[in-house]
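step=encode ok
step=design start
structure_in=
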């Protein structure tokens, strides 16, 4: 046996690093497991490598490598780029290089300016979207803050104070929590048996009584009321539905919160005031702190003010007056201290204090104004202000106070004349003087004002309004001269400021000045490369939203001078006149539009429609005749002419126009309108013949196949209709309405398995269609096969994309869910489908059934806001208002529906496209759909 130690028990060699020969280094594990030990340093690694090289006989390998590394530092790659060598050595940076750099810099600035508007618009949209999805806390409470304006001083005084947040109170609470006491065995035994159910029946019949009331009795006498538990559960579900509707996202997970604005102030009023002892302790601590401040820095005015207000808050008004008086002695030049002293005293003492304050600070405008306010009669106030002007004649605020005290306009004019002499740079004084003068003298005053204040745009605007008042606003273009001078003086305001001034002029009735401001300043600062049209359209929309329609008209007029052939701008201008103008103004705008853009059939049809709705049918025909000359063979104009004649009872003329249109503009739409027109006239043979001719020309048009099958159904030839639908789905397999008509015809014929087969083929052709899945579910439900309907519903919710599942969830809530479970099912649907109009209507119907009318109305209105073009939503809301709404509200809904003219909706389209209802207006269709809803 050798005395050598075991290998593992031997001490490690000097500078030993485990695994270094294999290339191992230190490592760090995952953060949740904690870091491993730190690896060897760089010096340790070099020392170990050198020792290893010496053992293997490589000599001073590390030293050689170190020298090589030092030589590598001279590589040209690591040269300073500013220290040019070789071909670039000895270069001189001359004027040509400077000129080249300047040109490149201007090019970069130009390119950046061109992209700036789009980039800023994109960034602003992204920022708004992010702020909308992630509202700040202050935004969520903004409405509550605005509501605090109505709180009285007594209610403010009743608000609770903050509690003691000092470390002493916190430590004492922690000490109390750390005290433990032994719990008696009786308490433990009672707690252990508290949740056990009793196995005996009381002699007095208490158990039976509890059971009859919907409660369960435990052994210790406590009652479990299951009815109240159910009511609480319903209330929680309702709150979650409200949160989901307010935030538009899943708020039940805790990602957002809401506050009841009605109960918030009530909860504040019911809050208990903090402990009076703790409040006194806080006041004492703050008093000591402020006492230290006033002793350390006695010439600091805010310290004295804070100390006095603390005593006032504590109810010691005498002490507060004494403190602030001492503050006046130590800080005789502090306006704030003197003003605080005046505020804390009564009027008689305040006058004496104000006199002392003015003796110490005879050039303080605030003190003079406060002394003036302490006087009771106007004469004394004038005397104080005049003394103030003797000491501070250059104070604009004092002159304004003096003018406001004058009741006679002549005396005020004299004061303003003197004030403008002493303060010639005050724009407000010049404008006030011009306002008091007659028009001739006001013009002279404004001319003097422009000389003294050449950079003031307010004076130029006042001059323009004066010219408008004199009736020369159209002749004298003051704003053109104003823009030139302000640009020369480098005092040109921004476009937004000019628009704001134009809106002020509109409010004041200066319409000509408003238009002149927009005309001369709207294009300032915008280049041709900027998105000027979009910018100006946005400015006009902003003015419309603020109710400034004349400003918006001026903006549109200027935009049309720059872009006279822009259809977008003409449509926007016409929409403004339609909504907020007169009928004649709208006609005038549309006449200018069709002359400027004669190739736009939309503008021609708008003009013809407006003439027709005004009862001028002949003028509407003339407009369409002019449109034909400018746009020959345009199908939209042809169809507009046909509709005009058909609506006015000119059947033969309309048929002749359609025949000519089929020859001149033989499009599939013209053929469809021809078939529909004959079908409306109940000439089914002619309609069928036209449909067959159209299908020979356009075999891939699904609507023509649908019309052919519907004509056969109207004629009672169901087998021929089946053949038409079957041929149509082969020609156009992607048409969902065609598949639906085919399956419903098979169901009508009593061929239920055939109808299922048709819908299965349809879902194979259009796999993610919510309408096809919903029709399959309804088919099984009508066949009393509820289990199969539920199975299909589960498959549909898996296969159909979530944004399109609204109609499926509505079907599931109303027909595949028990009544008590509808509300939780609606909450689940809102989590899956965000603000689908069909789902919102379903939730509104749930609240309607529970007689929660206000909430039901809110949900119906949310559905309309989500999609105004969905006619079924309008019909459900109108049906609700027929039972629970006022006459005014129903008329409002009808007028809005007529203005929107909805075109979609399952029931709406079936009623609106029925040939029996041809020619009926939106109001009649709305009432028919309302009567059809079940």
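sequence_out=
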């Amino acid at each position: 046996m050798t005395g050598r130690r075991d290998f593992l028990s031997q001490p490690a060699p000097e500078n030993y690093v485990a695994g270094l020969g294999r290339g191992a280094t230190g490592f760090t594990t995952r953060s949740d497991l904690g870091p491993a030990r730190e690896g060897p340093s760089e010096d340790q690694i070099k020392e170990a490598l050198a020792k290893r090289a010496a053992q293997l006989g490589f000599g001073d390998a590390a030293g050689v490598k170190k020298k090589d590394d030092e030589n590598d530092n001279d590589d040209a790659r690591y040269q300073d780029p500013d220290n040019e060598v070789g071909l670039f050595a000895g270069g001189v940076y001359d004027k040509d290089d400077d000129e080249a750099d300047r040109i490149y810099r201007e090019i970069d600035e130009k390119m950046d300016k061109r992209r700036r508007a789009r980039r800023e618009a994109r960034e602003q949209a992204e920022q708004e979207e992010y702020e909308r999805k992630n509202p700040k806390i202050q935004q969520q409470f903004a409405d509550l803050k605005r509501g605090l304006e109505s709180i009285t001083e007594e209610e403010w005084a009743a608000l609770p104070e903050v509690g003691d947040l000092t470390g002493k109170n916190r430590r004492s609470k922690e000490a109390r929590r750390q005290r433990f006491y032994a719990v008696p065995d009786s308490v433990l035994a009672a707690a252990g048996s508290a949740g056990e159910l009793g196995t005996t029946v009381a002699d007095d019949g208490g158990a039976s009584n509890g059971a009859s009331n919907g409660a369960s009795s435990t052994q210790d006498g406590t009652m479990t009321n299951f009815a109240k538990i159910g009511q609480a559960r319903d209330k929680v579900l309702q709150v979650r539905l409200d949160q989901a509707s307010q935030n538009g996202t899943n708020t039940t997970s805790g990602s957002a919160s809401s506050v009841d604005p009605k109960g918030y102030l009530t909860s504040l009023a019911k809050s208990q005031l903090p402990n009076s002892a703790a409040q006194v302790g806080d006041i004492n601590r703050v008093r000591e702190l402020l006492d230290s401040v006033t002793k350390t820095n006695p010439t600091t005015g805010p310290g004295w003010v804070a100390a006095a207000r603390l005593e006032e808050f504590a109810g010691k008004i005498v002490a507060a007056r004494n403190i602030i008086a001492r503050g006046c002695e130590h800080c005789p030049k502090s306006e704030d201290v003197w003003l605080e002293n005046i505020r804390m005293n009564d009027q008689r003492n305040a006058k004496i204090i104000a006199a002392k304050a003015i003796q110490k600070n005879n050039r303080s405008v605030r003190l003079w104004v406060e002394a003036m306010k302490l006087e009771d009669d106007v004469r004394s106030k004038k005397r104080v202000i005049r003394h103030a002007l003797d000491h501070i004649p250059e104070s604009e605020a004092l002159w304004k106070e003096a003018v406001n005290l004058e009741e006679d306009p002549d005396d005020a004019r004299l004061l303003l004349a003197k004030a403008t002499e002493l303060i010639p740079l005050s724009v407000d004084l010049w404008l006030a003087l011009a306002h008091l003068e007659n028009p001739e003298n006001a013009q002279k005053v404004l001319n003097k004002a422009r000389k003294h204040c050449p950079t003031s745009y307010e004076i130029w605007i006042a001059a323009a309004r004066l010219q408008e008042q004199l009736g020369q606003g159209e002749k004298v273009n003051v704003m053109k001269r104003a823009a030139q001078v302000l640009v020369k003086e480098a005092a040109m305001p921004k476009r937004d400021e000019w628009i704001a001034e134009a809106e002020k002029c509109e409010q004041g009735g200066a319409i000509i000045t408003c238009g002149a401001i927009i005309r001369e300043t709207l294009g300032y600062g915008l280049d041709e490369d900027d998105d000027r049209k979009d910018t100006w359209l946005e400015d006009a929309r902003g003015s419309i939203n603020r109710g400034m329609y004349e400003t918006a008209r001026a903006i549109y007029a200027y935009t049309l001078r720059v872009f006279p052939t822009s259809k977008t701008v003409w449509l926007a201008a016409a929409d403004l006149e339609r909504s907020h103008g007169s009928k004649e103004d709208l006609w005038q705008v549309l006449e200018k539009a069709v002359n400027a853009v004669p190739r736009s059939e939309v503008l021609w049809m708008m003009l013809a429609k407006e003439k027709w709705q005004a009862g001028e049918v002949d003028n509407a025909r003339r407009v369409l005749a002019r449109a034909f000359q400018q746009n020959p063979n345009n199908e939209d104009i042809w169809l507009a002419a046909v509709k005009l004649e058909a609506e006015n009872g000119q059947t033969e003329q309309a048929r002749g126009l359609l025949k000519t249109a089929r020859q001149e503009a033989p499009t599939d739409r013209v053929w469809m309108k021809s078939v529909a027109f004959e079908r409306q006239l109940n000439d089914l043979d002619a309609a069928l013949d036209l449909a067959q001719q159209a299908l020979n020309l356009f075999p891939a048009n699904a609507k023509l196949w649908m019309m052919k099958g519907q004509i056969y159904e109207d004629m009672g030839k169901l087998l021929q209709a089946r053949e038409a639908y079957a041929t149509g789905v082969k020609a156009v397999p992607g048409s969902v309405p065609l598949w639906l008509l085919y399956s419903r015809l098979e169901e009508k014929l009593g061929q239920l398995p055939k109808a299922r087969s048709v819908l299965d083929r349809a879902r194979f052709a259009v796999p993610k269609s919510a309408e096809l899945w919903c029709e399959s579910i309804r088919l099984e439900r009508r066949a009393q096969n509820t289990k199969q309907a539920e199975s299909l519903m589960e498959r549909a919710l898996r296969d159909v994309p979530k944004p399109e599942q609204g109609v499926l969830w509505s079907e599931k809530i109303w027909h595949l869910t028990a009544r008590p479970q509808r509300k939780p099912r609606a909450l689940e649907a809102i989590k899956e489908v965000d603000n689908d109009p069909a789902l919102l209507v379903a939730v509104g119907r749930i609240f309607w059934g529970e007689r929660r009318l206000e909430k039901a109305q809110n949900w119906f209105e949310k559905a309309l806001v989500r999609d105004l073009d969905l006619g079924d939503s309008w019909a459900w809301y109108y049906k609700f208002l027929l039972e629970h709404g006022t006459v005014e509200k129903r008329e409002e809904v009808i007028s809005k529906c007529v203005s929107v003219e909805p075109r979609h909706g399952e029931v709406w389209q079936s009623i609106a496209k029925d040939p029996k209802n041809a020619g009926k207006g939106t109001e009649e269709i709305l009432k028919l759909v309302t009567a059809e809803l079940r």
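step=design ok
step=annotate ok -> The longest strand covers residues 215-217.
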